[in-house]
Inverse folding.
């Protein structure tokens, strides 16, 4: 496959990556929130897209409330344990790669562990790779022998996954890669019409099986549409089939069509207002199990990213890469358990929150629901020597927010329920007399009731300052 920079770029463009702002480190969570597009720019919808649009709000309600999901990348690449692109990056010949299928022996019901962890972590849905770019199908398909039933595992791993997610009350999502490095027509379909027809029939057939044999499926997560366009994949027809089999499903935008939601990858970028989006992200730097990858994100980063997504009205799909036997790397378990403990107390500040208009602050993230503002202080102030001379910082400890346009009515710590004293004037609201040590980790949340939508606009605060009046506008 010729996966050069330009094809990667056009792929990224398809994911809606324009204007990306990286937001992976706690404290650097500037969120790009594009303005709504000018009216009259959109192309008219096809009849089937219009039909999907009509039911979208209802189909997506649970998903918007959920905010947090688990992505699972698992396949033959986990046996190699060197990233899910090993076949490509390391140039492994197909006959060699195929041998992995004989040596893939997961322990029974490994997915139960994943589902239990997802539940504990506060995640509300799970999306598993049913077929990644390597072409190996994790289910009992009748369309190829290159599948988990006929090879090493001798079991239907998709069935086990679906049962495990349902047992924990979690929603079920299928990832499906259109790009296929194994199938003889997977690349030939680009230049040979007979191959394209065969490969489209195969692809639609596999998706049909997935959406017929496993009961109600909540999400279909297409990936990489190389080497065809939506027209070549017959994606309109593909989605029509999907919705006829699963009327309540939601689909993403990686089969060349817009689908129900956008999928920024490894960065947090809100779509325009009214368009659903979900950031997918790795916990280290690899999607598939990668023995040597020790670049684990911290719980603080994950909690911060989750809040950044929530403020933009988006979801966070956080990946795990199980080992070939299905075990979850211990670092993954530890981060997710910590995040889950934090969500046990602070879930109110994440689930079912709404998109807000709040500009950044290096010490905190913000989320909101209606007139309630949640201040997620991840760098707690504690003592400052300035408190000795500046009444502004008394009584210690003080958290001050400039530019909050609404009036604060009351405030309390989510962790303890303890109410927080505050004073407010045109320039700032100051929460005072706080504990010197952060009451909660990785972030302490203050729940703030306001008299209106809690917009924070530093520009508006600046216009009140005397220096602004000298005629310099920024
Ligand atoms: C990219 C990668 C793939 C991964 C996916 C997740 O498409 O190629 O390995 O599955 O991102 O979004």
């Amino acid at each position: 496959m010729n996966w050069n920079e330009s094809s990667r770029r056009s792929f990224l463009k398809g994911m809606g990556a324009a204007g990306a702002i990286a937001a992976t480190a706690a404290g650097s969570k500037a969120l790009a929130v594009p303005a709504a597009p000018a009216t009259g720019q959109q192309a008219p919808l096809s009849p089937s897209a219009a039909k999907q649009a009509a039911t979208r709000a209802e189909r997506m309600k649970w998903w918007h409330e959920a905010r947090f999901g688990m992505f699972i990348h698992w396949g033959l690449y986990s046996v190699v344990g060197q990233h899910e692109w090993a076949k490509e990056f390391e140039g492994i010949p197909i006959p060699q790669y195929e041998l992995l299928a004989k040596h893939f022996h997961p322990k029974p019901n490994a997915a139960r562990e994943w589902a239990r962890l997802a539940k504990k972590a506060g995640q509300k849905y799970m999306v598993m790779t049913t077929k990644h770019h390597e072409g190996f199908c994790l289910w009992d398909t009748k369309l190829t022998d290159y599948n988990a039933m006929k090879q090493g595992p001798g079991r239907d791993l998709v069935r086990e996954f679906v049962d495990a997610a349902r047992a924990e009350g979690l929603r079920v999502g299928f990832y499906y890669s259109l790009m296929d490095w194994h199938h003889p027509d997977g690349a030939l379909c680009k230049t040979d019409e007979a191959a394209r027809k065969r490969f489209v029939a195969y692809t639609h057939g596999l998706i049909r099986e997935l959406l017929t044999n496993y009961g109600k499926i909540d999400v279909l997560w297409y990936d990489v549409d190389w080497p065809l366009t939506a027209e070549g994949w017959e994606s309109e027809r593909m989605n029509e089939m999907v919705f006829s089999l699963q009327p309540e499903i939601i689909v993403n935008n990686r089969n060349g069509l817009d689908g129900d939601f956008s999928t920024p990858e490894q960065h947090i970028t809100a779509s325009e207002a009214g368009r659903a989006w979900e950031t997918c992200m790795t916990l280290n730097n690899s999607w598939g199990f990668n023995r040597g990858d020790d670049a684990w994100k911290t719980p603080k980063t994950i909690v911060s990213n989750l809040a950044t997504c929530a403020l933009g009205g988006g979801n966070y799909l956080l990946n795990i890469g199980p080992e070939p036997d299905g075990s979850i790397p211990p670092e993954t378990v530890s981060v997710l358990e910590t995040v889950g403990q934090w969500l046990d107390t602070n879930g109110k500040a994440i689930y079912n929150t709404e998109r807000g208009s709040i500009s950044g602050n290096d010490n905190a993230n913000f989320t909101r629901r209606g007139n309630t503002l949640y201040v997620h202080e991840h760098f707690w102030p504690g003592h400052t020597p300035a408190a000795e001379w500046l009444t502004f910082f008394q009584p210690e400890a003080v958290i001050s927010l400039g530019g909050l346009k609404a009036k604060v009515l009351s405030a309390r710590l989510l962790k303890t329920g303890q109410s927080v004293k505050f004073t407010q004037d045109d320039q700032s609201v100051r929460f005072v007399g706080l504990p010197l040590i952060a009451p909660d980790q990785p972030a302490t949340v203050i729940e703030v009731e306001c008299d209106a939508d809690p917009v924070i606009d530093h520009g508006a605060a600046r216009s009140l300052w005397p220096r602004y009046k000298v005629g310099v506008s920024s």
Observations:
- The domain at 364-462 is CATH 2.60.40.1180 (Immunoglobulin-like).
- Residues 1-30, 32-40 have pLDDT under 50 and may be disordered.
- The pocket of alpha-D-glucopyranose is lined by residues 73, 84-85, 223-224, 265, 280, 287 (CB under 6 Å).
